[in-house]
Amino acid sequence: MIRIGIIGVSGYAGGELARILHHHKEVELTVATSRQYSGQKLSQIYPNLRGVSDLICKNLSAEEVAEQADFVFAAVPPHSAMKMIPPLLEAGSKVVDLSADFRLDSAEVYEDWYKCSHSARQYLEEAVYGLPEVNRSSISTARLVANPGCYPTSIILGLAPLLRRNLIRTGTIIADSKSGASGAGRGAKVAQLYCEVTDGIRAYGVGKHRHTPEIEQELTKLAGEELVISFSPHLLPVSRGINSTIYADLKEELTQEEMMSIFAEEYYDEPFIRLCESGVFPTTQNVRGSNYCDLGLQVDPRTERVVILSVIDNLVKGASGQAVQNMNLMCGFEEATGLDIVPLFP
Fold first, then answer.
1. Is 22 helix (H, G, I), strand (E, B) or coil?
2. What kind and span of H or E run contains 299?
3. Beta strands 273-275 and 293-300, pairing class
4. pLDDT: is 139 or 198 the higher one?
5. Is 150 part of the annotated catalytic residue set?
6. Mean pLDDT on 225-244
7. Which long-range contacts (CB under 8 A, 24 or more apart) does 192-198 make?
8. Of residues 141 and 198, more confidently modeled
9. What is the mean pLDDT of residues 314-318?
10. What local confidence, expressed as pLDDT, does residue 188 receive?
11. I want to staple 318 with a disulfide (CB 3.0 to 4.6 A). Which of 265, 314, 331, 332 is the partner?
12. How many Cβ atoms sit within 10 Å of the Cβ of residue 112?
């Protein structure tokens, strides 16, 4: 059994990690940290874990966590992870960071978008971007993996097959994404109150969302040329789920059948990519609570564009499930271990 630690267990991602890891036959959750809930049981913070875990949350340093865990998930906000992860690596722990602190290759780009000096620049080159469908081989040999953001996961998986084959005009990409309220975290915010969210939909961070440089960085690598996109996120009055509708101009005429074949070839052996039949489009309800990414496609010959619809659960494939998928690769486990969870419906 590999001993697992979660730093920052009291956020939504930390709670999902605890839930998912309970189903994992190769690991044991031995330590979970929380300043706010130190001394309380996990089941007190998350009543859904009642009868599942009696682990007591503690307020521990990174060095103390490393003494009790061989593998650590850092589920803390940006700016905090960069301070905690170096001591973990120096102590010999492997780490998946769920924050944004090691996702960007450039410290200067990070500092520009996150308005914070990066104190662990020496690890940026080492960190592997943790999207298994793209970087599986590099993840399997890494000791530090930067878990992707939720919006980037949905958008990159939707575009990767077309960029790899040079089939779209990279300057025409538009991503219109919508997320459930849990994407903003568990902290109390007026904008996330029930009366502020329900019965409406609103855009935010248009043209300046912090996930933008991450998306462009990884799409540039897939395309082999520098690109920028138009990315507009929206808040939905639901608890979880992301639906990204992505538009791009085609470089050549492709039929619907040809487009479906391209995606089927690219993703035929991926355990967590599900391609909808032609004319069927995915919904967030059908991935809820699971690590799946469902994709739907439509070629529009009138506008000479392709429309890609990509849906995930933002807390699972968009965060904690993908983190466990990365852990499985890093530890040599079968990739789907602990993640063969059938989505909830309704």
1. coil
2. strand 293-300
3. parallel
4. 139
5. yes
6. 96
7. 197/235, 197/237, 198/237
8. 141
9. 98
10. 67
11. 314
12. 11
Rounded CA separation 154/160 (Å)? 10
Task: Name 202's bridge partners.
Answer: 235
User: Which pLDDT value is given to residue 190?
Assistant: 79
Chain mean position to CA 290: 12
Contact 312, 318 (CB under 8 A): yes
Which 3 state secondary structure label does DSSP give 21? helix
Mean pLDDT, all residues of the chain: 96
Cβ-contact 123, 316 below 8 angstroms: no
Residue 313 or residue 184, greater confidence: 313
Q: How many angstroms separate the CA atoms of 216 and 161, rounded? A: 16
Q: Phi and psi (nearest 5°) for 283?
A: -130, 150
Q: In the prediction, which pLDDT does 195 show?
A: 84
d(CA 169, CA 122): 35
Which residue in 122, 124, 128 sits closest to 101, CA to CA?
Answer: 124
Picking from 206, 184, 207, the residue whose alpha carbon sits closest to that of residue 197 is 184
Residue whose token pair is 């439509």:
298
Residues in a beta bridge with 176: 232, 245
| Omega prior to 161 cis, within 30 of 0 | no
Instruction: Give me the mean pLDDT over the 33-60 stretch.
Output: 93
> What whole-number distance in Å separates Cα of residue 175 and Cα of residue 49?
36
Q: Which two tokens stand for residue 250?
A: 């085609």
Set 57, 150, 276, 293: catalytic member: 150
Task: Give the model confidence (pLDDT) of 171-223 as tens digits.
Answer: 999 999 999 998 877 776 777 788 888 889 999 999 999 999 999 999 999 99
Token digits of residue 270: 């991926």
Q: How far apart are the first and last CA of the chain?
A: 35
pLDDT, tens only, 86-109: 999 999 999 999 999 999 999 999
Measured CA angle at 74 (ends 69, 77), to 5 deg: 155
pLDDT of residue 92: 96
The tokens describing 318, both together, are 């968009």
Sequence-separated (6 or more) residues with CB below 8 Å from residue 157: 131, 133, 273, 293, 295, 310
What pLDDT, on a 0 to 100 scale, did the predictor assign at position 193? 80
